Amino acid sequence: MIDEKIRQLILNLTGNGLQVMSDGGTLVIGTYRSSEEVVLFVKDEGQAWDWLSVTALPNGMTHG
Fold it and tell me: The whole model's pTM is what?
């Protein structure tokens, strides 16, 4: 069950990243270990989100 949630998270983040880069760009997916955690990151060259708006949405939902 956790594997499926992580898979869906990666699909959502990469899909959102590709959407905001409609004119092309680079999408980077990576991991690194930090103390006792593994950190997953997705970085794109699209327009940044207004994080205040995103965190204000109910249940952490985004528009898309």
Answer: 0.57
Amino acid at 14: T
Residue 16 burial by Cβ neighbours in a 10 Å radius (0-12, 13-18, 19+) = middle
Contacts of 17 (CB under 8 A, 6+ apart): 27, 42, 43, 44, 46
Distance CA 11, CA 30 (A): 13
Residue 15, both tokens: 């899909």
Residue 57, both tokens: 């949405």
Highest mean pLDDT among 22-26, 30-34, 52-56: 30-34
| Domain regions of the chain by residue span | 2-60
Return the bridge partners of 34, or none: 37
